[in-house]
Amino acid sequence: MSHSPSSSRRFFSLLIFVLTIVKTCSSSCSSSSSTSFHCPPFNASPPFPFSTSPGCGHPNFQIQCSSPRSTISIKNLTFSILHYSSLSSSLTLSPHLDSNQNNCSSLRFSSSSPNRFIDLTGSPFRVSDSSCSRLSLLRPCSPLTLPNCSRCPHDCKLLKNPGRILHGCESTHGSLSEQGCQGDLLSFLQDFLTRFGFEVEWDSSQDPYFPKCKDCRVKNGLCGFNTTHPNQDFICYSSQRESTTTKTTVNNHVAVLCLIFALTCLLLAISVAVAIFRSRKASFLSSVNEEDPAALFLRRHRSAALLPPVFTFEELQTATNKFDPKRKIGDGGFGSVYLAQLPDGNLLAVKFLHHHHGDTEHCKAFSMKSFCNEILILSSIDHPNLVRLHGYCSDPRGLLLVHDYVANGTLADHLHGRRSKMTWRVRLDIALQTALAMEYLHLSITPPVVHRDITSSNIFVERDMRIKVGDFGLSRLLVYSETTVSSGSSSDYVCTGPQGTPGYLDPDYHRSFRLTEKSDVYSYGVVLMELVSGMKAVDQRREKRDMALAELFVSKLQMGLLDQVVDPLLAGGEEEDEGGVAAVAELAFRCVAVDKDDRPDAKEIVGELRRIKSRTRLAEDDVARC
């Protein structure tokens, strides 16, 4: 069923896109044909004295269009317009509250008002009797709990007389009963004003602009004012009508053309939708009973009993807190890694493979096979020094792998970061454990697995300083994607494009495209050089010829200048440590030999490191006895 949901999504996405174009076109035409602009809550252009256009209406009552409510300013107070009644010429307003009140209530509105109450005296607006009546019925429940009246006198006054918040609505409760009292009167009053507001009515006789507008409208003029000098007298735009009529005629023609264009867009959208629906219908019906391609591929190559558990996308989404960026613990070329906590409390690492934007069908198939190959490889290995796969998820929303979570960082963090510095004995143990993991991959699995990305960043350190090699994002491409052929040398090889991390990539593999286990040996040799020197595999701060650690290390060793590349933390140590450092440096030199046949295999590397470790231990015992 992998094709049908994708086809349906593409179909509906295209349909919505085309319909959006049609809607946008229609909206543009309707706005062009309209002779005026309006905004909520007005269904048409607001009548005088209100206006949204500069120069029109009353200069003191300009409406500011905003979402979700338009606003108006009266006596330096800003209100949201909840409702407008053209029949009663009234507005329902909600005041803008001040949120910074120093632990007092938010029922304050403007610093210019000394009493912090709403006073519309001096404007042509007055609070309606219905709003005052509602406020007169409000009262707190007994016993009355007063706030800190010295800090919040405004709140105390409102508790005693809620009607004071609107000038002209003051009243006393007298002998009103306690029925319907409010336990938290201030919060109730704040919520009431925000949600329902209060109604104001205007009286044209209270402002000289209003009667003059009536005379203007009798003459079929438009009421307005001079925007440059708004305090000057009212202006009647009597000649505006003719230009408006002409503009309306032109706009009507534009509206007709836009309507024709919108209908054409709609017909085109329907035609494209029908064509896509018919082309996808057959593939949808044929794929109804198909399985998930990942499950089908995995079962074809391995018994279901040997495969790791399957997680649902929702389970991993919950475990990672919806893939919270704060839980991201790593980010590479193949995917981002998140810390996940399962319901049983276990901490695991979830790798979310990156989506490739603009993928072709070939790229999608390649990504799916790579994902499956990594599952097949990781489910076939079991070694204490290799990261273990706990499960996977194949979902249209993403491909995810669930691994061990190693909490103590990477070897690169300990060598080059700010973590605690390591002794030579710890470094030698890490070198041996990494070699044991490589030996297991090359010699204990059939067919052998080539990791292709053995780097200090892919060696994870446990709290007891034991290690696990991880990130098989490149090794998964080897076993099932290419065909093994016999070579003339002692090793088999695979012809595949070179992939790996700069500084660790085998030069012979890069030149010949022939991948063998000895390519891992080269990368491992660079890791040994990092352990000995404490330097990065590639460092652009070094001179150009010494930028790659392998070239710098080999040249110093050939000139007998090993001491110049040994980590200063190791220099000047005990003689047995110095001997071990030189032996490991010589082993690293052999691992990066130009000719692959001159490099030791993993088994030989393990044996040599064990001998070095044994000699170091004997030397320590001799020192202890002395």
TrEMBL record:
Keywords: ATP-binding, Membrane, Nucleotide-binding, Signal, Transmembrane, Transmembrane helix. InterPro entries: Kinase-like_dom_sf, Prot_kinase_dom, Protein_kinase_ATP_BS, Tyr_kinase_AS. The chain crosses the membrane at residues 254-277. It comes from the Eukaryota. One of its GO terms (molecular function) is ATP binding. ATP binds at K351. PROSITE patterns: PROTEIN_KINASE_ATP, PROTEIN_KINASE_DOM, PROTEIN_KINASE_TYR. Residues 1-27 form the signal peptide. Residues 323-612 form the Protein kinase domain. PANTHER family: LEAF RUST 10 DISEASE-RESISTANCE LOCUS RECEPTOR-LIKE PROTEIN KINASE-LIKE 1.4, PROTEIN KINASE DOMAIN-CONTAINING PROTEIN. This is LEAF RUST 10 DISEASE-RESISTANCE LOCUS RECEPTOR-LIKE PROTEIN KINASE-like 1.5.
